[in-house]
Amino acid sequence: MSENPKPLTHVGIIMDGNGRWAKNRNLERSQGHQAGVKKAIEIVKHASHRKIQFLTLYAFSSENWSRPETEVSTLMKLLQEFLFSELPTFIEHQVRLVTIGDTQKLPLFARGALHHVIEKTKNHTGLTLVLALSYGGRDEIKRALGKLLEQAQKGDVNSKTLTEEHITNALDTSFCPDPELVIRTSGEFRTSNFLLWQCAYSEYAVTETLWPDFTPQEFDQAIDSFHKRDRRFGGV
Ligand code: FPP
User: Fold this and answer.
1) CATH, residue 73
2) What residue ranges in 17-149 does DSSP mark as E strands?
């Protein structure tokens, strides 16, 4: 792009293909996830450098609990390692960490690491890294409806006064704008329960590249292609 467009406020990434990346190399799936974490670190630094305000990484879905116990436990340990090893990076780049999803379901050691890093980074002013953990769009909407029902019981809202804003504010993502762009790696054309309400008008960029092979250049290409699109939000 010749001109310098405004940085995007929110990019979401569905990081897919760690398992296939490992299989192609005769490696264990866990080694694919390890490579996936390394890639996440590289992309966080790059997004921070590009002055993106919010980057949401789909790190563990509510459906991922059904994977074999050993894989789930590997992913939880990798999450803990990632949090402790990258805290200095978050400090250096002023990255603020937050989570979305039903994180109460995570094992205590992972919740402890999250709490520690969230507290240490809460006043940072750079990129907000949103880790979607034990996250599913339908589960999030269900939990939001629960909150709204409680508000209704208290008389704060009813079927006539309910607005879209009430729903937006009851979601886990109430602190951030909707993503303008969602990138999905590994060539699948699915939303996979990612930010269902928030992606109503998001643009999608799908690449065949498996997540561990994804590059900052491809991230930039996705943003460039976003800027060339004509977004009409249902208008003409
Ligand atoms: C998809 O690969 C990826 C996941 C299930 C999420 C795991 C993501 C990472 C390990 C990277 C980032 C993690 C952190 C903590 C920032 P897959 O196993 O579904 O791949 P496949 O479809 O090829 O089998």
Assistant:
1) 3.40.1180.10
2) 54-61, 96-100, 128-135
